[in-house]
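C-alpha cells please, single chain.
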Amino acid sequence: MFISKKRPTSELEETRTSSRRRTISEAKHKKLGPIKNYAVWLMGRQDYSAADLERRFAMKGYPAKEIQDCMRFLKDNALQSDERFAGNRARTKERRQGNRRIAMDLKTKGIDQELIAGAVETLGEEKERAIGVVQKFAGKDVTQELKTKAWRFLAARGFGSDSIKAALSALQEQSGSAR
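Here you go.
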C-alpha cells in the first residue's frame, strides 16, 4: 500500500497569486525583500505621495528606520516628489472635478496645504470646467427639476456655488438658443 507524504490540507494555504501551496507557518513568516526594490517597483507603476508610501511600507512590516532611509533615497534620487504627485493628480482630475474635491483628495493622500494650494492654482478656470461637465445635461428641456439635479451633480463633484450658477446659466442659454 502506498502512503502519500502530502501534508493534511488543514496545514496548507494556497496563495492568492499562484497555485503553489505552502505551509501556514511559511506564509506567516515570509521574508521581506529589500525595501528599496519594493519602492522602485511601486514608483515604476505609478506616482505615490510620501505618506502613501510610508503607509504601504509600514503595512508590509518594514522597520521605521528602513522606511526613513528609503524615503530619503527616493527623494534624493528624484523618484518621489509630493509636488509632482500633487500636480499630476490635480491635472488628472481637472476635467471631472471641482477645486474643492481635488483639494480634499490631495489632503487624504497626505499632501501639505501649501502644495495643495499650488496644485489647485495651476488648474484651469473652475467655471469653464463646470460648464464642460454640465454638458451632460444639454439637449434636454431645462426645468427646475433638471437644474436641481445638475446642481447636486456639480456640487457632489466639488464645484463651488459661483461655478455651478455660471454652468446652469450657460445651460439655460444653450437650451434657449436651441429652440
